[in-house]
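Entry 14. Structure prediction run on the chain below.
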Amino acid sequence: MVNSPKEQDAQVLDALHRARFGIPPSSIVALRESGSDRRIHRLVTPTGSLVGVVNGDRAENRAFVSFSRHFRAEGLPVPEILAVTDDEGAYLEEDLGDDTLFDLLLRGRAAGEGDVPPMVAAVYEEAVRMLPEFQVRAGRGIDESVCYPRARFDRQSMLWDLAYFKYYFLKLAQVPFHEQALEDDFQALADFLLRAPSDFFLYRDFQSRNIMVRDGRPWFIDYQGGRRGALHYDLASVLVDAKADLPMSFRAHLIEIYLESLGRHLEVDRDDFMAHFDGFVLVRILQAMGAYGYRGFYERKTHFLQSVPFALRNLEHLLGAWSAPVRLPTLFDSLRAITRSTRLRELATSAPPLEVVVTSFSYRKGVPADDSGHGGGFVFDCRSLPNPGREARYAPHAGDEAIIVDWLERHDDVHAFVARTGDLVESAVAAYGKRRFTHLSVAFGCTGGQHRSVYCATRLARRLEQRPGVRVELRHRDVQRIQKVDT
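Output returned:
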């Protein structure tokens, strides 16, 4: 009788454990399925546990083992390599437990602790703060000869990722495109990305599932695809990690933490860094979507398709806020077609939350643009309402301060306006949820953007926050706050 693959893996790991420690493990249990061909197991021993990995791709194993030993010697929190088979087809490593940062994020949300629970936010912040340690300090000493499958994230690597997206997502999702025009855009994008400094260690898959959490601290795994490359890619990877679905405000916060930490290792031109950042966000999203298509559409592992609707949200934000100085008309036409696809949005068993951006503004400075790329939404004119700003004692205050709230709520027409606009928006929110839309913009304008619009926007935001499946971002674009003076 021929042993099953699991039994064969168990035999290899049992023999490796005996050779290293002189005793067999008490048990060997297969763990999670990974996004590669590695088979991961937990070996339970009388004194604890460790992890065993079996993988026919020796070059991938060699890279992981080499990088792990180097990073460990540099004092970074990565698993210790305990043993490797002579043929490099399997290895044993330190067991970091079962909690990934992604797992903790989902558990915290399910417990009602917010979009990014405080403990989870702290781990994200520490992980991003430590990223330059891998990229710059420890990255200087890596053995480039083991980089897999290439030593650099160069033009060829970029074009591989873009082709991966074209063949395994665009084609399998049946999105039409002009082949040569799309290839021209791919070349233009690669030209642009290659202008960024690239003599750093590129982790390649720096995202929440590859950050383990032990004793409240981040530990790092799955950097076997690392190579030389630009700094931007890894930061983009963790921010647009699809199903993590981090709020845009938290992403901006992490960018600032990263740039501050990076500045301790080298001189940073923030404007130059951000000028290239959107391009690396784009290529990372496309690489991930290629993986979802390959594993989901092609290999029929449907759970990988659960990430597609979340990736569409990332694309929407990127298309709406694109600032990189490179034109990609055919690629962007294809991406817009993807974001409009109801069929692709319905791939998830549960839809991404509907993000409602509620903004107050002054008509003197113009109606705010919708940076989601959708256009549309609601714009409500509050100038017909009573105006507290006409009285000198109220003028300096904002519409969300108690003194203005009390004044406005003494007027019945204010209550009526808030109720009617709220009902109208809530009906749209319900319809958007059924159709798995992911973004709605609502703006309230008044003369100065200080009182009535701020009050109405705040009231609506508080109302919508009570709805399940809705994420609200409140923005007061033009409000002027009273400067508090310490006494």
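DSSP finds 15 helices and 13 strands in the chain.
Filed with the rest of this week's runs.
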